[in-house]
């Protein structure tokens, strides 16, 4: 009897701390937040910082064109994706040493509650919006220009905004707004609300097609997705990064099948042609590319893969 009591006491002494530890661990609340959304790399002498505005769930079956919903479903399944794909909205901060240049600005409040994080992540990356000298717009859809404004005020008070004059003529036109389908009117209204304060302040400088904007930074006309859709080429010390804007939205479908287009295209035929050319150039040239809606940070290489292409994202690195 004495031995039994002794053993029970020993077991109790051993088990009690384990139960306390288990209780303490179980009581820790789940954090449920992500790390700040920025990723930094060097391109020659130029510092490039990818800035996340957030992600938004989009449904490829409803949006992709020149294909079938069944086929899109099969391709999504192959990539372990479902009906709704969490789609990144990326911007890129270019520090040349002389200029601080932001390419696209995210959506702010124009595209739903899961976006609008650009200014927060810009600050987390070590920069202030007042330091930005220029903002380059790939096109004037709301998820690219909404972040130009913050709380009803100009978000980048010391910056000049640059965009192709064809996009400005289309998206800022009251006549085009009047002719637009009801579902698209918000796109025009968002562009006007975001750009017109800069226009009124003399801080909007449209350009005409392909042109050099700053040393090492070129605009290249790529119309189709919108009338003035532009890609930007960044070069330093023999290294090259091409910022694609909205040439691609859904990697699981549009890399293996570049001919697949999206309902947001103003001219889907031209958009498909621009994508085919950009893909071929990137695969042949082996330079870095970045997409506004590729999984954050959206930077990588493209290689030919059968009749299509395969995406090879950059490796995460802590090297400076």
Give the proportion of residues in helices.
25-40%
The total of beta strands comes to 18
In percent, how much strand structure appears in the residues? 25-35%
Radius of gyration: 24 Å
Q: Which ranges are low-confidence, i.e. pLDDT below 50, for 5 or more consecutive residues?
A: 3-11
Quick one: overall form?
globular
| Average pLDDT number | 93
Level-2 CATH architecture: 4-Layer Sandwich
- How many helix segments? 10
Question: Could you characterize what this model shows?
Answer:
This protein has helices spanning 2-27, 60-63, 69-78, 118-124, 142-145, 165-171, 174-179, 185-200, 251-254, 268-285, and strands spanning 38-43, 46-58, 64-65, 85-95, 100-103, 134-136, 149-150, 153-154, 160-164, 204-207, 211-214, 217-221, 230-236, 239-243, 261-262, 288-290, 299-305, 308-313. 32% of the residues lie in helices and 28% in strands. It contains ten helices and 18 strands. The protein has one domain (38-313): Ribonuclease Z/Hydroxyacylglutathione hydrolase-like (Metallo-beta-lactamase, Chain A, 4-Layer Sandwich), CATH 3.60.15.10. It is globular and about 50 Å long. It is α+β, with helices and mostly antiparallel strands and 320 residues long.
Which helices and strands appear, and what pairs or packs with what?
Layout: H1 2-27, E1 38-43, E2 46-58, H2 60-63, E3 64-65, H3 69-78, E4 85-95, E5 100-103, H4 118-124, E6 134-136, H5 142-145, E7 149-150, E8 153-154, E9 160-164, H6 165-171, H7 174-179, H8 185-200, E10 204-207, E11 211-214, E12 217-221, E13 230-236, E14 239-243, H9 251-254, E15 261-262, H10 268-285, E16 288-290, E17 299-305, E18 308-313
Parallel strand pairs: 5-6, 6-9, 9-10, 14-16
Antiparallel strand pairs: 1-2, 2-4, 3-15, 4-5, 7-8, 11-12, 12-13, 13-14, 16-17, 17-18
């Amino acid at each position: 009897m004495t031995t039994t009591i002794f053993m029970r006491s020993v077991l109790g002494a051993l088990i009690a701390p384990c139960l306390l530890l288990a209780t303490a661990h179980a009581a820790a609340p789940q954090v449920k937040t992500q790390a700040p959304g920025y990723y930094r790399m060097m391109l020659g002498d130029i510092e490039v910082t990818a800035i996340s505005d957030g992600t938004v769930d989009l449904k490829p079956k409803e949006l992709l064109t020149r294909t079938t919903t069944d086929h899109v479903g099969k391709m999504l399944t192959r990539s372990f994706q479902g009906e709704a794909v969490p789609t990144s909205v990326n911007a890129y901060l270019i520090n040349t040493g002389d200029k601080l240049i932001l390419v696209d600005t995210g959506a702010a409040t124009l595209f739903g509650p899961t976006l609008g994080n650009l200014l927060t992540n810009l600050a987390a990356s070590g920069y202030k919006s007042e330091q930005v000298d220029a903002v380059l717009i790939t096109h004037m859809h709301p998820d690219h220009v909404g972040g130009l404004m913050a709380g009803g005020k100009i978000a980048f008070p010391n910056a000049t905004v640059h965009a192709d004059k064809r996009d400005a003529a289309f998206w800022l036109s009251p006549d085009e707004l009047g002719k637009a389908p009801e579902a698209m009117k918000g796109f025009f209204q968002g562009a006007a609300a975001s750009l017109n304060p800069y226009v009124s302040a003399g801080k909007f400088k449209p350009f005409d097609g392909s042109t050099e904007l700053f040393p090492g930074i070129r605009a290249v006309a790529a119309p189709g997705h919108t009338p003035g859709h532009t890609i930007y080429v960044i070069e330093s010390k023999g290294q090259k990064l091409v910022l694609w804007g909205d040439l691609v939205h859904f990697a699981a479908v549009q890399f293996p099948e570049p001919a697949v287009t999206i309902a947001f295209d103003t001219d889907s035929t031209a958009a498909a042609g621009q994508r085919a050319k950009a893909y071929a150039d990137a695969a042949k040239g082996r330079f870095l590319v970045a997409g506004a809606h590729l999984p954050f940070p959206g930077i990588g290489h493209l290689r030919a893969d059968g009749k299509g292409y395969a995406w090879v994202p950059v490796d995460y690195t802590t090297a400076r």
